[in-house]
Every structure is written in structure tokens, then in C-alpha cells.
């Protein structure tokens, strides 16, 4: 059965891990109907969590907040993977004993929604950062700003920057000259290849003419 309830959060129940403290989170269940509903929360690890309330009523178009607390303090590197199943059904008449009502309820009348649990590391607050570390970070920032200011106002720093600029211009000029030289060299090689090709054709013509003359002379003197 669908459409009776909605939950928030929808996928994960986040338990914040704080040193020496129990993890706690809230699950909100919303009644999407104009009828009174009953709900029941089940968990795969009942010894690990306390669910309050685990069973109860939700008035029409209303909601209920369920507080879930861990039985033991959490560790940031611990494991808290578990499933929670939220069951809901329409309550057509007043029930004095909801636990007995759920035991005898037809499963086809129940809407079930599942959500998982997980550990979320505690957020680091600014006031929790050691004072010495804050002073160290501030000092490093000041040093960087001082160096930047010195590079602007110090004449020697400006001279170094100007020298670097001149070297860069010389490198750019040499790079351009090298590129021009490569283009000239490529053009010369192309011209040499063309001359060689024409020379090969000329040698072939000479061979053919010499061969024809030899054949004619041989024919004349042979006769």
C-alpha cells in the first residue's frame, strides 16, 4: 500500500559522532491522508537504538517526530549501518491496545518505508580550533602580504622584475628567429628536391637519345 505517509529524511538517519556522547537524530513521519493513522517503527538492531515513540498515532494531515538515540557513545571511525522500517496503516476506529492491533493486522493494509543509519563526523567549529594554530595561520598570511608589498615598493625587486622581463623578450626574439630559419631551410630543401627531379629527367633523355643514335648507326653500318 502506498500514499499514506512520507518521511524526512528519506534515505539516511545521520548520527553525529561526538566524543563521549550518545548519537541522536530525529525522524519525521507525515500523514498524507485525511484519516487517522497508526505507525510502528522497527529496527534491525533493537539493542543498539532507543526509539521514542516506537508506536503511536498520527492525526489527519499532521506529523509526528520520532527521536532515535544510540545505546552507546559513537566513534567517528565506528560502524553504525542499520535499517529502520516505518510501518503505517489507517486506523478506522479507536484502539486501546496498539501493540495487539499491530500483531493482528493484515499485512496488505500496511505501507512500509525504509531508511538507513550512518555516522556523520562532528563539524569543526571555529572556536574549537586551538588558539596557537589560529595565530600561526594569521602569521603566515601576514608574511605573504609583506612579501607581496615589498615586491611592489622595493626598488631592487623592481629591478629584478625588469631584468626578467628583458630576458623574456630576448628569448621571444630568439624563438622567432629560429622559426624563420626553419622556414628558410624547408624552402631550400624543397628547391633542392625540385632540381634533383629535373636533373633525373634530363639524364634519362640523354640515355634515350644516345640509344636511338646507336641503333641507327648500327643499322647503317650493318647493311
TrEMBL record:
Cellular localization per UniProt: Membrane
Alphabetical list of InterPro entries matching this protein: Ig-like_fold, MSP_dom, PapD-like_sf, VAP
Record-level Gene Ontology MF annotations: protein-membrane adaptor activity
Membrane-spanning segments: none
GO biological process terms, semicolon-separated: endoplasmic reticulum membrane organization; endoplasmic reticulum-plasma membrane tethering
Chloroplast listed as a keyword: no
Coiled coil stretches, renumbered: 157-191
Manganese found in the keyword field: no
Keyword set, alphabetical order: Coiled coil, Membrane, Transmembrane, Transmembrane helix
Pfam families: Motile_Sperm
Domain MSP stretches: 4-120
UniProt topology in membrane: Single-pass type IV membrane protein
Domain of life: Eukaryota
Record-level GO cellular component terms: endoplasmic reticulum membrane; plasma membrane
Record family assignment: Belongs to the VAMP-associated protein (VAP) (TC 9.B.17) family.
Protein name: MSP domain-containing protein
Protein source organism: Paramecium tetraurelia
